[in-house]
Amino acid sequence: MVGLFSALLGAGIAGEYFIRQVRTIIPSHLATLEEGQEHSCMLSLTVLTRLEAGDTERAKSVLAQEVASWYRVPWQPEGPYRQKILDLIEATKSKSTVLRDELAKKPK
After folding, report:
1. Based on the domain organization, do 31 and 3 belong to the same domain?
2. pLDDT, tens only, 5-17
3. Distance set, CA 9 to CA 1, 18, 32, 38 (Å)
4. Count of structural domains within the chain
5. Which of 1, 3, 45, 66 has its CA 20 to 30 A from that of 86?
6. Same domain as 107, residue 77
7. Strand residues in the chain grouped as ranges (E)
8. Does the CA dihedral 48-50-54-58 come out positive or negative?
C-alpha cells in the first residue's frame, strides 16, 4: 500500500514538472516561429517593393544576402534538406554573379 502511494505521489510530481516544462517551452517555440514568419514576410515585402520599383539589382542583392546568411550559419547543421539546399546554392552560384559575390564576402 505504501509502495502504491509512493508511486502515485512520484507520478504526480513528475507530471507537474513535465507540465511546467511544456508551458515554458511552447511559448518560446511559438515566438521563434512567429519571428521566422515576420522575417520571411519582411524579406518578401522588401524584394517585392524593389522589383515593383524596377530595382532588380537591389532585389537580387537582398536575396543573395539572405542565402549567404543561411549558407554561413544554418539553424540545423545536419538538417534533412541541408545538403540538397547546399547543392542548389552551388549550382546557382555559378550562374549568379550577385550570389557568388555575396558568398565571397567575409561574414559580418
Report:
1. yes
2. 666 556 666 666 6
3. 12, 14, 35, 44
4. 2
5. 45
6. yes
7. none
8. negative
What 3-state DSSP class applies to 50?
helix
C-alpha cell at 69: 546568411
DSSP 88-103: HHHHHHTT-HHHHHHH
Identify which of 62, 106, 69, 108 has the alpha carbon closest to the alpha carbon of residue 89: 69
Q: What is the DSSP letter of 74?
A: -
Tell me: the pLDDT tens digits for 27-43?
666 566 677 788 888 98
For 63, the grid coordinates are 536575396
Neighbours of 50 (CB within 10 A): 18
CA distances from 99 to 8, 46, 58 (A): 60, 17, 12
Q: Which amino acid is at 37?
A: Q
